[in-house]
Amino acid sequence: MKKGKLQEYWQRNISLTLGLLAVWFVVGYVLAIVFAPQLNNITFLGGPFGFWIAQNGAIYVFILLILIYCLRMNNLDKEYDVEG
């Protein structure tokens, strides 16, 4: 692969990773910790929403982020012909 293409590939890889890390930070830290007291005023599935986000929602989001990363990277690898 040419150096320019390789640099473009890694730039897109890093961009994807940083975007997913931003979502992870918002859900895992901002919603589950910082805004948990405010979210606990909302009832969701019979319990406080802040607690549900911290205990369940964050895990679901993390699994979804892993799935998104795998699918997007597979497509990116095919696009740049670096699939293994």
Structural summary, described in words:
Helix content is 80%, strand content 5%. A hairpin with a 2-residue loop joins strand 1 (43-44) and strand 2. The protein has three helices and two strands; from the N terminus they run H-H-E-E-H. Strands 1-2 form a two-stranded antiparallel sheet. The two termini are 14 Å apart. It has helices at residues 3-34, 36-39, 49-79; strands at 43-44, 47-48. The chain has one domain (3-79). The longest helix has 32 residues, at 3-34.
- Please count the beta strands (DSSP E, at least 2 residues each): 2
Query: Using only CA atoms, what is the Rg?
Result: 18 Å
Structural class: mainly alpha
Distance between the termini: 14 Å
The share of residues in extended strands comes to under 5%
Tell me the count of domains: 1
Could you write a compact summary of the structure shown?
The protein is mainly alpha-helical and 84 residues long. Helices cover 80% and strands 5% of the residues. The chain has a two-stranded antiparallel sheet.
Topology diagram in text:
Blueprint: H1 3-34, H2 36-39, E1 43-44, E2 47-48, H3 49-79
Helix pairs in contact: 1-3
